[in-house]
Amino acid sequence: HAHRLTHTRVSRAIEYVHAAAEVGANAIKFQIFDNPNSETMFCFIDGDEERSGRWKQSRLSYLQWKVIKEEADALGITFLASCFEYETVKWLSGLGVCATKVASRAANRIECFEGAPLPLMVSNGMYDTVDIKLKDEQTILLECESVYPSIMRWGGKLPGYSDHSGNPWRAIDAISRGCKLIEVHFHIDRIHAGPDLPASLALSELGLVCEARDVIGAL
Asked: At residue 123, what are phi and psi to the nearest 5 degrees?
Protein backbone atom coordinates (compact mmCIF):
# COMPACT_ATOMS: atom_id res chain seq x y z
CA HIS A 1 0.00 0.00 0.00
CA ALA A 2 2.81 2.41 0.92
CA HIS A 3 4.60 1.52 -2.34
CA ARG A 4 1.47 2.31 -4.37
CA LEU A 5 1.08 5.66 -2.61
CA THR A 6 4.71 6.59 -3.33
CA HIS A 7 4.33 5.58 -6.97
CA THR A 8 1.25 7.80 -7.18
CA ARG A 9 3.21 10.74 -5.76
CA VAL A 10 5.97 10.33 -8.33
CA SER A 11 3.42 10.05 -11.15
CA ARG A 12 1.59 13.13 -9.93
CA ALA A 13 4.82 15.15 -9.69
CA ILE A 14 5.71 14.13 -13.25
CA GLU A 15 2.19 15.09 -14.33
CA TYR A 16 2.81 18.59 -12.93
CA VAL A 17 6.14 18.80 -14.76
CA HIS A 18 4.44 17.96 -18.06
CA ALA A 19 1.57 20.37 -17.43
CA ALA A 20 3.87 23.29 -16.60
CA ALA A 21 6.01 22.57 -19.66
CA GLU A 22 2.96 22.34 -21.94
CA VAL A 23 1.66 25.80 -21.00
CA GLY A 24 5.10 27.35 -21.40
CA ALA A 25 6.48 27.81 -17.88
CA ASN A 26 10.25 28.32 -17.71
CA ALA A 27 10.60 26.35 -14.48
CA ILE A 28 8.72 24.24 -11.99
CA LYS A 29 9.48 24.28 -8.27
CA PHE A 30 8.56 21.66 -5.69
CA GLN A 31 8.80 21.61 -1.92
CA ILE A 32 11.01 18.67 -0.91
CA PHE A 33 10.62 16.85 2.40
CA ASP A 34 12.37 13.85 3.92
CA ASN A 35 11.37 13.59 7.60
CA PRO A 36 10.08 17.02 8.64
CA ASN A 37 10.03 17.64 12.40
CA SER A 38 11.37 20.13 14.92
CA GLU A 39 14.82 18.46 14.97
CA THR A 40 15.38 17.97 11.25
CA MET A 41 14.04 21.37 10.12
CA PHE A 42 16.04 24.54 10.62
CA CYS A 43 12.96 26.76 10.28
CA PHE A 44 10.30 24.99 12.34
CA ILE A 45 7.64 27.53 13.37
CA ASP A 46 4.31 27.61 15.21
CA GLY A 47 1.74 25.44 13.48
CA ASP A 48 4.27 23.11 11.88
CA GLU A 49 3.26 20.25 14.15
CA GLU A 50 0.01 20.10 12.19
CA ARG A 51 1.57 20.90 8.83
CA SER A 52 4.27 18.24 9.17
CA GLY A 53 1.67 15.48 8.84
CA ARG A 54 0.67 16.84 5.43
CA TRP A 55 4.31 17.28 4.43
CA LYS A 56 5.10 13.66 5.28
CA GLN A 57 2.29 12.57 2.98
CA SER A 58 4.14 14.23 0.07
CA ARG A 59 7.69 13.09 0.81
CA LEU A 60 9.76 11.26 -1.76
CA SER A 61 13.27 9.85 -1.67
CA TYR A 62 16.31 11.49 -3.22
CA LEU A 63 16.34 8.90 -6.02
CA GLN A 64 12.66 9.52 -6.76
CA TRP A 65 13.27 13.26 -7.01
CA LYS A 66 16.15 12.51 -9.34
CA VAL A 67 13.74 10.69 -11.67
CA ILE A 68 11.43 13.72 -11.62
CA LYS A 69 14.35 16.08 -12.25
CA GLU A 70 15.46 13.99 -15.23
CA GLU A 71 11.94 14.14 -16.66
CA ALA A 72 12.02 17.94 -16.37
CA ASP A 73 15.40 18.02 -18.09
CA ALA A 74 14.05 15.90 -20.95
CA LEU A 75 11.18 18.33 -21.43
CA GLY A 76 13.42 21.39 -21.29
CA ILE A 77 11.85 22.88 -18.17
CA THR A 78 14.03 23.95 -15.23
CA PHE A 79 13.57 21.93 -12.03
CA LEU A 80 13.84 23.88 -8.76
CA ALA A 81 13.15 23.03 -5.13
CA SER A 82 12.50 24.60 -1.75
CA CYS A 83 14.10 22.78 1.18
CA PHE A 84 13.58 23.15 4.91
CA GLU A 85 15.65 20.29 6.36
CA TYR A 86 19.41 19.92 6.79
CA GLU A 87 19.33 16.64 4.86
CA THR A 88 17.32 17.81 1.86
CA VAL A 89 19.54 20.86 1.35
CA LYS A 90 22.36 18.36 0.77
CA TRP A 91 20.28 16.72 -1.97
CA LEU A 92 20.25 19.84 -4.15
CA SER A 93 23.80 19.53 -5.45
CA GLY A 94 23.31 15.87 -6.28
CA LEU A 95 20.10 16.66 -8.11
CA GLY A 96 22.00 19.20 -10.18
CA VAL A 97 19.62 22.12 -9.73
CA CYS A 98 20.81 25.41 -11.23
CA ALA A 99 19.64 27.59 -8.31
CA THR A 100 18.23 27.24 -4.79
CA LYS A 101 14.86 28.65 -3.74
CA VAL A 102 14.82 29.87 -0.13
CA ALA A 103 11.30 30.22 1.23
CA SER A 104 10.55 33.26 3.36
CA ARG A 105 10.31 31.15 6.53
CA ALA A 106 13.97 30.18 5.99
CA ALA A 107 15.23 33.57 4.84
CA ASN A 108 16.85 34.37 8.19
CA ARG A 109 18.72 31.04 8.12
CA ILE A 110 20.78 31.61 5.00
CA GLU A 111 23.73 29.90 6.68
CA CYS A 112 21.84 26.59 6.48
CA PHE A 113 22.15 26.74 2.69
CA GLU A 114 25.95 26.66 2.78
CA GLY A 115 27.13 24.71 -0.26
CA ALA A 116 23.72 24.76 -1.99
CA PRO A 117 23.75 25.63 -5.70
CA LEU A 118 23.85 29.36 -6.42
CA PRO A 119 22.19 31.73 -6.94
CA LEU A 120 19.93 31.73 -3.90
CA MET A 121 16.46 33.02 -4.73
CA VAL A 122 15.14 34.34 -1.43
CA SER A 123 11.54 35.35 -0.63
CA ASN A 124 11.31 38.12 1.95
CA GLY A 125 7.70 37.67 3.15
CA MET A 126 8.41 36.87 6.80
CA TYR A 127 11.45 39.11 7.24
CA ASP A 128 12.34 42.63 6.24
CA THR A 129 15.06 42.71 3.62
CA VAL A 130 17.49 44.37 6.02
CA ASP A 131 17.03 41.48 8.47
CA ILE A 132 18.09 38.87 5.93
CA LYS A 133 21.83 38.23 6.28
CA LEU A 134 22.67 37.95 2.59
CA LYS A 135 25.96 36.21 1.84
CA ASP A 136 27.04 37.64 -1.48
CA GLU A 137 25.94 39.08 -4.76
CA GLN A 138 24.65 35.70 -5.90
CA THR A 139 21.36 36.28 -4.11
CA ILE A 140 18.13 37.30 -5.81
CA LEU A 141 15.41 38.73 -3.59
CA LEU A 142 11.75 38.07 -4.33
CA GLU A 143 9.14 40.37 -2.86
CA CYS A 144 6.26 38.47 -1.29
CA GLU A 145 3.63 38.52 1.40
CA SER A 146 3.33 35.59 3.81
CA VAL A 147 -0.47 35.58 3.64
CA TYR A 148 -2.47 33.04 1.65
CA PRO A 149 -4.06 34.35 -0.49
CA SER A 150 -1.99 37.53 -0.63
CA ILE A 151 -3.22 40.91 -1.79
CA MET A 152 0.03 42.78 -2.50
CA ARG A 153 1.24 43.89 -5.93
CA TRP A 154 4.89 43.80 -6.91
CA GLY A 155 6.41 47.02 -5.62
CA GLY A 156 9.16 47.28 -8.21
CA LYS A 157 12.06 47.60 -5.75
CA LEU A 158 13.21 43.97 -5.76
CA PRO A 159 14.07 41.97 -8.89
CA GLY A 160 11.65 39.11 -8.18
CA TYR A 161 8.08 38.54 -7.08
CA SER A 162 6.61 35.50 -5.31
CA ASP A 163 2.86 35.80 -5.72
CA HIS A 164 0.33 33.93 -3.57
CA SER A 165 -2.79 35.76 -4.72
CA GLY A 166 -4.38 33.07 -6.88
CA ASN A 167 -5.00 35.86 -9.39
CA PRO A 168 -3.12 35.68 -12.73
CA TRP A 169 -3.41 39.45 -13.23
CA ARG A 170 -1.07 40.14 -10.31
CA ALA A 171 1.74 38.30 -12.12
CA ILE A 172 0.81 39.85 -15.46
CA ASP A 173 0.87 43.31 -13.90
CA ALA A 174 4.37 42.64 -12.54
CA ILE A 175 5.56 41.39 -15.93
CA SER A 176 4.17 44.50 -17.62
CA ARG A 177 6.16 46.68 -15.23
CA GLY A 178 9.46 44.89 -15.80
CA CYS A 179 9.64 42.08 -13.21
CA LYS A 180 11.95 39.36 -14.55
CA LEU A 181 11.50 36.54 -12.03
CA ILE A 182 8.02 35.51 -10.91
CA GLU A 183 6.88 32.56 -8.82
CA VAL A 184 3.23 31.51 -8.63
CA HIS A 185 1.37 28.54 -7.21
CA PHE A 186 -0.69 26.44 -9.61
CA HIS A 187 -2.84 23.32 -9.52
CA ILE A 188 -4.05 20.77 -12.04
CA ASP A 189 -6.81 19.33 -9.90
CA ARG A 190 -8.59 21.34 -7.21
CA ILE A 191 -8.99 18.19 -5.13
CA HIS A 192 -5.22 17.84 -4.74
CA ALA A 193 -4.48 21.54 -4.23
CA GLY A 194 -4.93 21.32 -0.46
CA PRO A 195 -5.01 24.42 1.75
CA ASP A 196 -3.12 26.45 -0.88
CA LEU A 197 -6.07 26.29 -3.29
CA PRO A 198 -7.17 29.95 -2.77
CA ALA A 199 -3.60 31.06 -3.50
CA SER A 200 -3.12 28.89 -6.58
CA LEU A 201 -3.70 29.46 -10.28
CA ALA A 202 -5.57 26.98 -12.43
CA LEU A 203 -3.46 25.53 -15.23
CA SER A 204 -5.23 27.69 -17.82
CA GLU A 205 -4.41 30.78 -15.74
CA LEU A 206 -0.74 29.77 -15.59
CA GLY A 207 -0.87 29.49 -19.36
CA LEU A 208 -2.29 33.02 -19.52
CA VAL A 209 0.64 34.34 -17.47
CA CYS A 210 3.11 32.56 -19.76
CA GLU A 211 1.39 34.00 -22.82
CA ALA A 212 1.55 37.49 -21.33
CA ARG A 213 5.28 36.99 -20.65
CA ASP A 214 5.85 36.15 -24.32
CA VAL A 215 3.71 38.95 -25.72
CA ILE A 216 5.13 41.64 -23.43
CA GLY A 217 8.65 40.34 -24.01
CA ALA A 218 8.13 40.57 -27.79
CA LEU A 219 6.93 44.15 -27.45
From this structure: -85, 140
Q: How far apart are CA 201 and CA 184, in angstroms?
A: 7
Helix axes 62-75, 86-95, angle to 10 degrees: 40
Q: Quickly state the pLDDT bin for 217 (edges 50, 70, 90).
A: confident
- In this predicted structure, the answer to whether residue 130 has a pLDDT above a threshold of 60 is no
User: In what side-by-side order are the strands of the sheet with 78-83?
Assistant: 27-32, 78-83, 100-102, 120-123, 139-144, 160-163, 181-187, 200-202
The predicted-structure confidence for 70-110, as pLDDT tens digits, reads as follows 999 999 999 999 999 999 999 999 999 999 999 998 988 88
Residue among 135, 100, 93, 133 nearest 118 (CA) = 100
Sign of the CA dihedral with 73 first, then 78, 84, and 89 last: positive
Biggest alpha carbon–alpha carbon distance for the chain: 52
Measured CA to CA, the distance from residue 90 to residue 33 in angstroms comes to: 12
Q: Which residues contact 55 (CB under 8 A, 6 or more apart)?
A: 31, 33, 36
